[in-house]
């Protein structure tokens, strides 16, 4: 395992601040151009709320997954590390599925959440909702993949540099899209979303070459091990006590059962809510 130095921390904090600031500006810099169009301003504000939340929100089980993956990385167990990352990302996909379905539904009828829109602006809102439902989850998923590979190695400054570069492109592209009284919100939002996806794909290529991260293990996880069953039972005990035995048994022998403990923050949050 490579030695972590103070220089790594300084790089991370510096580039992360620049990345967050430039990322935020790339979304809000368009708002002055919409100040005279109240409906468009409201539609765009509604959409960037989803973008900011999904892009920057810390979902509990992902943090837990990164913690467990970091422990395996410290032990030199790459297969287990990537296995935990793969399972955590799979859960993220499951969470995105109902969100995507809901946003695609809203794209056909934006009036469900945005009342009183003109037909033209309703079509714009529908187009934005469709992009959010289909492409934004892909963008965020790829960003999380990059985070899992770099964060536990304290090398996320690698991807942050790429993010900053693409964020600057987004910022300057505003002056290309919004000119002569035109407000192509759908085209602009599609452009910045695809740019973010391309940036994450570029980061994945760089990661594979620089730190030799095996992304293929995310799809092929040899985690089945009978020796892990007692540990699985221990980790699952707080989560599965209310379950009847017929439902409990298949969970305990599942290959990824040891990693189901990362669901604890989610279930505890639901318990408090209920």
Word description of this protein:
The chain is mainly alpha-helical and 274 residues long. It has two domains: 213 residues, no CATH class; 48 residues, no CATH class. The chain contains eleven helices and no strands. α4 packs antiparallel against α6 and α7 runs antiparallel to α8. It is globular and about 60 Å long.
The number of domains: 2
| Oligomer category | single chain
- The count of DSSP E runs of length 2 or more, i.e. the number of strands, is 0
Terminal CA distance reads 43 Å
Unreliable stretches covering 5 or more consecutive residues: 222-274
Mean pLDDT, to the nearest integer, reads 75
How would you spell out the order of helices and strands? HHHHHHHHHHH
Strand content: under 5%
Indicate the overall shape: globular
Tally of contiguous helical segments: 11
Described by strand count, sense and barrel closure, the largest sheet is: none
Task: Please identify the structural class as seen in this structure.
Answer: mainly alpha
From the alpha-carbon coordinates, what is the Rg to the nearest angstrom? Answer: 21 Å
- What is the percent of helical residues? over 70%
């Amino acid at each position: 395992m490579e030695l972590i130095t103070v220089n790594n921390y300084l790089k991370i904090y510096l580039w992360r601040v620049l990345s967050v600031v430039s990322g935020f500006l790339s979304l809000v810099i368009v708002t002055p151009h919409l100040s005279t169009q109240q409906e468009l301003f409201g539609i765009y504000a509604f959409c960037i709320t989803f973008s900011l939340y999904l892009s920057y929100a810390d979902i509990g089980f992902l943090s837990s997954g990164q913690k467990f993956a970091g422990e395996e990385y410290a032990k030199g167990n790459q297969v287990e590390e990537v296995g935990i990352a793969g399972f955590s990302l799979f859960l993220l996909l499951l969470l995105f599925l109902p969100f995507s379905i809901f946003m695609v539904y809203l794209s056909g009828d934006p009036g469900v959440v945005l009342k009183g829109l003109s037909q033209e602006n309703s079509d714009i809102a529908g187009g934005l909702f469709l992009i959010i439902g289909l492409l934004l989850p892909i963008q965020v998923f790829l960003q999380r993949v990059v985070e899992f590979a770099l964060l536990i190695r304290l090398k996320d400054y690698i991807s942050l540099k790429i993010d900053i570069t693409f964020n600057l492109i987004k910022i300057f592209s505003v002056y290309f899209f919004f000119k002569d009284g035109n407000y192509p919100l759908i085209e602009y939002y599609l452009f910045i979303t695809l740019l973010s996806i391309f940036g994450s794909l570029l980061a994945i290529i760089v990661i594979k070459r620089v730190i030799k991260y095996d992304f293929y293990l995310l799809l092929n996880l040899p985690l089945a091990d009978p020796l892990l069953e007692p540990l699985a039972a221990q980790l699952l005990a707080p989560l599965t006590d209310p379950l009847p035995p017929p439902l409990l048994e298949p969970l305990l022998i599942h290959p990824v059962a040891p990693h189901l403990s990362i669901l604890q923050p989610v279930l505890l949050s639901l318990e408090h809510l209920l």
